[in-house]
Amino acid sequence: MPDPLRGVGARIATARRARRMTQVQLSAAAHISPSLLRKIEQGTRQPSDETLDRIAAALSLDPSRLQAGPDRSGDRVRIALGAVSAAIAAYDIPTEPSGRSLPDVRAAVAEAATWRLNSQYVRLATAAPTLLADAVATYHAAEDGERAEAARLLTSAARSADAVAYKHGALDLSARLIELMRWAAPHAEDPSVAASTAYVRTETFFAARAHEAGLRALETAIDAAPSSDSPHAAAARGALHMRAAVIAARARDADAARAHLREAGTLAERAPESVYAGTAFGPDSVRVHRVSVAVSLGGDHAADALTVAREWKPPAVLPTERRSGFYIELARAQLWSGRTDHAFESLKVARRIAPQHTREHPWARETAATLRRLKRADDESLTAFAEWVGAV
Asked: Looking at the structure, do residues 214 and 289 belong to the same domain, yes or no?
């Protein structure tokens, strides 16, 4: 009978060698000791879930690709989402203090936001229940001088948890987390927090395919957004225009989509590419959304995505979720243009950048399934990819 410990260790060693990393380099990147990594690769030590997540992140892999047997990563996320639901069941009712200081909660929220931007959903899901419970308790226990910051932290914590819920199809939980954000945002005393909450709220309109209503909600939020007299203010308004461009395209309103994209581009000239209030914005993010708009409009518009890709590639400074999303959407445009080999290559690039994001993206799944049907010769690597992404 195969040894499951040795199987996990062998997968880690194979992935490490494929990336030309030494054990010392991988252990440093994963923040574990070289001796522990050596024992794991030899099959004499079982890695904990946290250790496996660290190793997978250092290798830019979905943790499930290192595991033997059933999809433990998916099981862990599902269990964690149930705990997230319990953690926010009474968010508006004061609770006992969490025992964590405001600086501790601040650091934990910032770490969770980094995991969200880099598509580390398993790690994020595992931490989210405790993070949310602590953020809720911190908000209710905060003194007047700390209440606004506590509200900002609670909004960010809910946004990080929502990223996992939405990506994994827990849409009811996602909607509840967004309502928590909307409840906390006014107490943050920061217009950029309200703007980022409106940005995230668009998920509920995407899920319901209520695109016209979503566009109206975003345009209302744009009217209420701060004037663009600083990079942060420009980014808050510009991110809403980016989102509005995409949902307008989903509503098949090409004129509105182009108008919002133009506004986003103008505002990006005042905001260097960075993460503002939890949302990446800048000239590169606008280019990514140009592809999103082209693919959302479909038809002849999809050619615009190919034009962008010929002239530009998303730089490594962008969050992995945004970069992988670019290649997932580009693959869709390439498929529609009959460039099936290019489409598969784009999906593989998306997986290398952010495996967990790619695996949970419905368009990656749909594109892989279509490619597999078209390639009746049954390319073995394509079949393996389709199985991994859940397309078969």
From this structure: yes
- Residue after which a domain boundary falls, among 69, 87, 106: 69
Instruction: Quickly list H helices, the chain.
Output: 4-18, 23-30, 34-42, 49-59, 72-87, 102-117, 121-141, 144-167, 171-184, 191-208, 211-224, 231-250, 254-268, 283-297, 303-311, 320-336, 340-353, 355-360, 362-374, 380-389
pLDDT at 379: 63
pLDDT confidence bin for 32, thresholds 50/70/90: very high
For 258, counting Cβ atoms within 10 Å of its Cβ (0-12 exposed, 13-18 middle, 19+ buried), the class is middle
Identify the burial level of 318 via C-beta atoms within 10 angstroms of its C-beta, where 0-12 means exposed, 13-18 middle and 19 or more buried. buried
Give the tokens for residue 205.
């309109």
Give the domain range for residue 376.
Answer: 319-392
Statement to judge: residues 111 and 131 lie in one domain: yes
Same domain, 221 and 172: no
Count Cβ neighbours within 10 Å for each residue of 168-198 and write b for 16 or more, e otherwise.
Answer: bebeebbbbbbebbbbbbebbebbbbbbbbb
Are residues 226 and 152 both part of a single domain? Answer: no
Instruction: Quick: pLDDT tens for 50-107.
Output: 788 889 888 877 777 776 544 556 677 888 999 999 999 999 998 888 788 999 999 9
Residues 6+ away with beta carbon under 8 Å from 50: 123, 126
How confident is the model over 265-304, as pLDDT tens digits?
Answer: 999 999 999 999 999 999 999 999 999 999 999 988 989 9
Residue type at 90?
A: A
Question: What CATH code is carried by the domain that includes residue 30?
Answer: 1.10.260.40
End-of-domain residue from the set 69, 99, 116: 69
Helical segments of 19-101, H only: 23-30, 34-42, 49-59, 72-87
123 and 41 inside one domain: no
**Phi and psi at residue 43, to the nearest 5°:** 85, 15
Does one domain contain both 215 and 146?
A: no
pTM of the shown model: 0.83
Q: Rounded distance, CA 69 to CA 53, Å?
A: 17
